[in-house]
Amino acid sequence: MSVLVGTDTKLVVSGITGREGTFHTLNNQAYGTNVVAGVTPGKGGQNVEGIPVFDTLHKAVEETGANTAMIFVPPRFAADSILEAEDAGIELIIAITEGIPAHDELRVYNHIKANGRSRLIGPNCPGILSPGKANVGIIPASFFREGQVGVVSRSGTLTYQIGNELAQRGFGNSSIVGIGGDPVPGSNFIDIIELFENDPQTELIVMSGEIGGDAEEQAAEYIRDHVTKPVIGYIAGFTAPPGKQMGHAGAIVSGSKGTAAAKAEALEACGVQVGRTPTAVADIAAEILGA
Amino acid sequence: MDLLEYQGKQLLARHGVPVPSGKPATTVDEAVAVAEEIGYPCVVKAQVQIGGRGKLGGIKVAASRAEVEEHAGNILGMDIKGLTVHEVWIEEASDIASEYYASIVFDRSAKSSLVMLSTKGGMDIEAVADEDPDAIAHLHVDPLLGFQDFHGRRLAFDAGVDADVIRPIGDMLAKLYETYLEEEALLIEVNPLIITNDREIKALDAKVTLDGNALYRHPENAELTDPSAEDPQEKMAKERGLTYVKLDGNIGILGNGAGLVMSTLDVVAQAGGAPANFLDAGGGSKAEAITSAVEVILSDSKVTAVLFNIFGGITRCDEVAKGLIEAFATINPTVPFVVRLDGTNDVAGRELLAEADLPNVHTVATMLEAAEKVVELAG
User: Fold this and answer.
1) In this complex, do B257 and A183 lie within 8 Å of one another by their Cβ atoms?
2) Distance (Å) from the C-alpha of residue B246 to the closest C-alpha of chain A?
3) Matching SUPFAM superfamilies, A to Z (chain A) (predicted)?
């Protein structure tokens, strides 16, 4: 088992004919992901290395039965593309695009939640990898193998770092889920931790957070009350000064709120072990899993 | 993106929010000219993005031309909590019957917009929230519904505003919400929102934060700048399209991906070092971007050593190595570099560096070792 993407995934890529879109779609396909369609308005009838391209997401779903969408279009078109995928009945929408305006994200989030039929991952995320089964997004899959650690993270490259530290100690992953670095992610730590808790393959959960917002604090309470599997936390941004946006739109300490120290404390108060470096996370994992 | 007070007020005024009339000035002569036009008494206000300006002498009332000269002369160039005042805002003095507080906050936790109103304006609202939380009326507005008349009524009644301004305050909140939505702000705070003796409502101060990701839809807002907040390195990085934040230390940092760079700063600090900057070279960086980033890092004269921490996903380590080699060819850095390359094309990247045999460039295997090495070399 794994979570969200796997052998049942039938992927449609919005923005498949763009340079990055084509490159990563073909990478995902080469990994074994079942890519059934692409969408670029005005390019319906064409194909990308044999993958049929449609003008609308609705047509792509109708013709191919796609159940997962990857959004790879520029920021000014991305919110619209997510809403189109939701309207077309896609169950899982994974938005890679960085730089979507916050008010667009807020409308999209509330609309999707009100309808209750789709799950959005991202935006501004590296996607989801279920090693050995499917890769949707830009995670460099060759560094990860199948195993028992579920990883959920707000950052892309930091996930690779943590995943790599785990791999060096011989641990693989059930799934790696990037929820993204924006202020209004479609799914949060809690949503993904719940999936890992119910996934038989996952024995240990690693959550990698960062400064800004209170998603980690909310997750801490959820873990205390609802999660039986061991969880290891990591928080980036202890040295971040208040009021400065550290790369990600969502990574900002506002006044005294959203600091790394407060998040680490909240997690520890709820029984989550927190590694102070990516290496320390792997050390704790080794202790728990006994390697 | 945070606006200066007067930039925020001009934004509010465009949406029909009454603000005292005024104009910005960058010299004493300009300040006097504005004051002569507005009349006396007027207020001279330092334009820096920092709370508590008034207590530090950054806001003065002037009753005459001579007083404007005196106050503008003192305030322009003044240092307020590390920021130099480059601009003052001269506005007509307002008579104040009551000071209220109003704000709209993009509430990422509630995935909604939070509107607040209080009759305890003119003071630090966080202190009010601590001491007397009931004094702040608040509610969330569904982004799919927008601000309704009842929201304004409810806030006005809950906050206990004077009976004669219940409706005008509601209208004012509606206009603030309109500004927030149409300008794509993440924060609009008016403290104080005043009631004059003539029972007019005016925004006497304005704190506005705009969404940087939405500026492409607001080209006129994208041009608003704050000379006092602009650090030379940050300005240089912005012009080159790099994500850079200046910090206080002496170890220059370059990495790929915001999370990994934040983590790198932390690990360096834990190893006893002080990072000079945050620099995310971004995904898929080509050699030229790396060279350009090295120039920005080294333009900070405090930097005594540089750490490259790369875990390549879309970023290719051979491109990073080429960029560093190019930087040595063009700017010939004199400080030591510690380089850690992992991920896509890491072997090729390390080979390139080994062949180039750059002076004082140390290649290390892990992030922890890299942090320890750079701290040792930085001195």
Assistant:
1) no
2) 9
3) NAD(P)-binding Rossmann-fold domains, Succinyl-CoA synthetase domains
In the set B87, B91, B183, B189, the catalytic residue is: B189
Tell me how far apart the alpha carbons of residues A252 and B281 are, in angstroms, rounded to a whole number. Answer: 19
CA distance A240 to B122: 30
- Residue A150 has what pLDDT? 97
Residues of B in contact with A244 (CB under 8 A): 245, 278
pLDDT band at A257 (very low <50, low <70, confident <90, very high): confident
The CATH code of domain A11-121 reads 3.40.50.720
Provide the chain A residues 3-22 that lie in CB contact (below 8 A) with chain B.
Answer: 20
**Does the distance separating the beta carbons of B283 and A138 come in below 8 Å?**
yes
Using pLDDT thresholds of 50, 70 and 90, give the confidence band for residue B125. Answer: confident
- What mean pLDDT comes out for the span A213-241? 96
Assign domain A144-289 to a CATH class.
alpha beta
Q: Which residue has the higher pLDDT, A249 or B73?
A: B73
> Class of B21-92 per CATH?
alpha beta
> A173 pLDDT exceeds 90?
yes
Q: Look up residue B198 and give its two tokens.
A: 């003539």
Extents of the domains making up chain B: 21-92, 98-222, 231-378
Query: Which of the four pLDDT bands, split at 50, 70 and 90, describes residue B193?
Result: very high
Strands (E), A7-67: 11-14, 35-39, 47-48, 51-54
What CATH number was assigned to the domain covering residues B231-378? 3.40.50.261
Active site residue A248: yes
DSSP A136: E
pLDDT at A242: 87
Pairing of strands A92-95, A68-71: parallel
pLDDT of residue B64: 95
CA trace torsion B62, B65, B71, B72 (10° rounding): 120
Q: Name the amino acid, one letter, at A113.
A: K
Tokens coding B37: 């036009």
Q: Where are the domains of chain A?
A: 11-121, 144-289
Shortest distance, CA B247 to any CA of chain A (angstroms) = 8
Q: Is the ipTM of this complex over 0.95?
A: no
E-state strands within A138-259 = 146-153, 173-178, 204-210, 231-236
**A11-121 matches A144-289 in fold:** yes
Prior bond to B192 cis, omega within 30?
A: yes
Question: Do A128 and A94 form a contact (C-beta atoms < 8 A)?
Answer: yes
Task: Kindly tell me if the per-residue pLDDT of A17 is higher than 80.
Answer: yes
Q: What is the CATH number of domain B98-222?
A: 3.30.470.20
Test B144 with A103 for CB contact under 8 angstroms.
no
Place of tokens 């999707």: A112
B313–A154: do the CB atoms touch at under 8 Å?
A: no
pLDDT at residue A291 in the model: 61
pLDDT in tens, B21-74: 999 999 999 999 999 999 999 999 999 988 788 888 999 999 999 999 999 999
Confidence at residue B331, expressed as pLDDT on a 0 to 100 scale: 87
Distance from CA of B347 to the nearest CA of A (A): 14
Q: Give me the residue from A101, A159, A237 closest to B214, CB to CB.
A: A101
For B359-371, write each residue's pLDDT tens digit.
899 999 999 999 9
B162's CB contacts (< 8 A; 6+ apart) are B98, B195
Report the C-alpha gap between A78 and A71 in whole angstroms.
7
Interface contacts (A, B; CB < 8 Å): 167
Q: What percent of chain A has pLDDT over 90?
A: 89
Rounded Cα distance between B374 and A273, Å, is: 28
